[in-house]
Amino acid sequence: MDRALQATRLTMGIAPPSRRRASKIGASTSKNGFLLKLELHSDPSLLSVVRGALERLTETLGFSASDSRSITRAVDEALTNVIRHCYCGRVDQPLEVYFSHLKPNSSVGSKGALEIVLCDHGPPVDPAKFQARSLDEVRPGGLGLHLIRQSMDEIAYQRVRGANRFRLIKYFMPSKQSSKT
């Protein structure tokens, strides 16, 4: 665990000025600041630190135990995909995870949301590859996108200034019609 603590940095508070001027994918974060920021290496053994922090954060924000587990699984799956596909299993590459509280949005009937933005500096991702395989295909692997889409209310990918940004949103009180991208 010492290695995990040395390689992971937790930051709580207001986003630094450079983050406040972020592009559209982080624009909602700029108004509210972030609740928690994790900076870690792409070492799969560090994913337990992210899971633990996210479980506590979702509980603190009032998500149900079921939603808390779902959100945690989705983020874990997304980070695993980054490590596997963007960083080709290299354990020394930078990852950043931002957790922000979004204000209520009457157009979707929510009392606010948790926004999670995963940032990596791997090669650009082809958005066409965000197609999950058919559930009819019986074989191991390839179900992560199904899990992420099922767990989250919105997802979006964007390439910004040499970084991949994967944005996940979970409403506190999701509307009956959630927009999944």
Mind telling me the C-alpha Rg?
16 Å
Helix content: 25-40%
Distance between the termini: 37 Å
Residue runs with pLDDT of under 50 for 5 or more positions: 11-32, 174-181
Q: How many beta-strand runs?
A: 6
Helix/strand order, N-terminal first: HEHHEHHEEHEE
What's the CATH C level? Answer: Alpha Beta
Count of helix runs: 6
Q: Which structural class should the secondary elements be placed in? A: alpha+beta
Round the mean pLDDT to the nearest integer and report it.
79
- In the sheet with the most strands, the strands line up as 1-2-3-4-6-5
CATH architecture grouping = 2-Layer Sandwich
Could you describe the 3D structure shown?
With 181 residues, the chain is an alpha+beta fold. The chain has one domain: Heat Shock Protein 90 (2-Layer Sandwich), CATH 3.30.565. It is 35% helix and 26% strand. Strands 1-2-3-4-6-5 form a six-stranded antiparallel sheet, sandwiched between helices. Helix 4 (47-60) packs antiparallel against helix 5 (65-86) and helix 5 (65-86) runs antiparallel to helix 6 (144-151). The termini are far apart. Residues 11-32 and 174-181 have low confidence and may be disordered.
